[in-house]
Automatic annotation (TrEMBL):
<keyword id="KW-0046">Antibiotic resistance</keyword>
<keyword id="KW-0547">Nucleotide-binding</keyword>
<feature type="domain" description="ABC transporter">
    <location>
        <begin position="1"/>
        <end position="226"/>
    </location>
</feature>
<dbReference type="GO" id="GO:0016887">
    <property type="term" value="F:ATP hydrolysis activity"/>
</dbReference>
<dbReference type="InterPro" id="IPR027417">
    <property type="entry name" value="P-loop_NTPase"/>
</dbReference>
<dbReference type="InterPro" id="IPR050763">
    <property type="entry name" value="ABC_transporter_ATP-binding"/>
</dbReference>
<keyword id="KW-0813">Transport</keyword>
<protein>
    <submittedName>
        <fullName>ABC transporter ATP-binding protein</fullName>
    </submittedName>
</protein>
<dbReference type="Pfam" id="PF00005">
    <property type="entry name" value="ABC_tran"/>
</dbReference>
<dbReference type="GO" id="GO:0046677">
    <property type="term" value="P:response to antibiotic"/>
</dbReference>
<dbReference type="InterPro" id="IPR003593">
    <property type="entry name" value="AAA+_ATPase"/>
</dbReference>
<keyword id="KW-0067">ATP-binding</keyword>
<dbReference type="GO" id="GO:0005886">
    <property type="term" value="C:plasma membrane"/>
</dbReference>
<dbReference type="InterPro" id="IPR017871">
    <property type="entry name" value="ABC_transporter-like_CS"/>
</dbReference>
<dbReference type="InterPro" id="IPR003439">
    <property type="entry name" value="ABC_transporter-like_ATP-bd"/>
</dbReference>
<dbReference type="GO" id="GO:0005524">
    <property type="term" value="F:ATP binding"/>
</dbReference>
């Protein structure tokens, strides 16, 4: 996937300011960002569900703005709010979707992978919110997509369902599926993504591996200690050396702490919401 200068304007509001993205085949790429950052807008443009104002986009070799049915059959989509037929059962829904694709996965296998075995005969309207979401994921992957879009896929999942979902994503990635997901959860991005970009106010403010995100910030530690009346604080990339200096006379520095920002601190700083 190759995106250049992608921009989306709504009347009186620029939602995406002109971003560049490159996602390789087989890669799991996460778009992080606060509410209203432009994640859904970006993803919907790349899915061919929304028109861009300007810029170029190439997804699986085609422009999503005018790609046809054959292209659509190669992608899978899990939207934030799915529309579905509430009167069908889980198994009927998945089978119905499977029939829309030339080379679908086995519906029963997909139902198992999303952990809905026990609910296969249950009508969609009788599912809980988290179970509905899992069904959305099942419908998104049953067509054996080469590229899968997941917009906040684990919202409403209990912790066990999230872990199970992560395993599923890893399986799909091992199978060669390219995955573009949006998320608010840093742990999810750390667990799943090969690379991530942070969107804020419609612009990419950082990009890289989850571990390297804001890496320079992570390398700076804050050393605090008490010197007589005063609490002292120093930011340093070599905290061990500073602590050695402080204790050179054999005394134990009072109230000594060494802290580093968490990934969440770095993220909040990147999106300009550091408390
Ligand atoms: N159809 C629309 N018309 C006008 N403005 C819109 C429309 N859709 C989205 N916006 C605005 O564009 C901005 C980006 O919205 P978008 O849904 O892409 O954000 P997001 O990053 O996906 O947020 P969230 O995490 O809440 O899903 C927001 O300020 C939103 O209000």
């Amino acid at each position: 996937m190759r995106v250049r200068g992608l921009r989306k304007e709504y009347p009186g509001h620029v939602a995406v300011t002109g971003i560049d993205l490159d996602i390789e085949r087989g890669e799991v790429f996460a778009l992080l960002g606060p509410n209203g950052a432009g994640k859904t807008t970006t993803v919907e443009i790349l899915e061919g569900h929304r028109r861009r104002t300007s810029g170029t986009a190439e997804v699986l070799g085609e422009d999503p703005g005018n790609a046809g049915r054959a292209w659509r059959a190669r992608i899978g989509i899990v939207l934030q709010t799915a529309t579905d037929a509430a009167e069908l059962t889980v198994a009927e829904s998945v089978r119905l979707f499977a029939r829309c694709y030339p080379n679908p996965r086995e519906p029963e296998e997909v139902i198992h992978h999303v952990g809905l075995d026990g609910k296969a005969g249950t009508r969609v309207r009788a599912l809980s919110g988290g179970q509905r979401r899992r069904l959305d994921v099942a419908l998104g992957i049953v067509g054996r997509p080469e590229l899968l879009f997941l917009d906040e896929p684990t919202t409403g999942f209990d912790p066990k369902a999230r872990r199970r979902f992560w395993e599923l994503i890893r399986l799909l990635a091992d199978d060669g599926t390219t995955i573009l997901l949006t998320s608010h959860y840093l742990d999810e991005v750390e667990a799943l993504a090969d690379r991530t970009a942070v969107l804020a106010g419609g612009s990419i403010v950082a990009e890289g591996t989850p571990a390297g995100l804001g890496g320079r910030a992570l390398s700076v530690a804050t050393v605090r200690w008490r010197a007589g009346e005063h609490l002292r604080e120093e930011r340093t990339e070599t905290p061990a050396r500073l602590v050695r200096e402080l204790s050179a006379d054999g005394a134990e520095p009072a109230e000594l702490t060494v802290t580093r920002p968490s990934l969440e601190d770095v993220y909040l700083e990147l999106i300009g919401e550091k408390p």
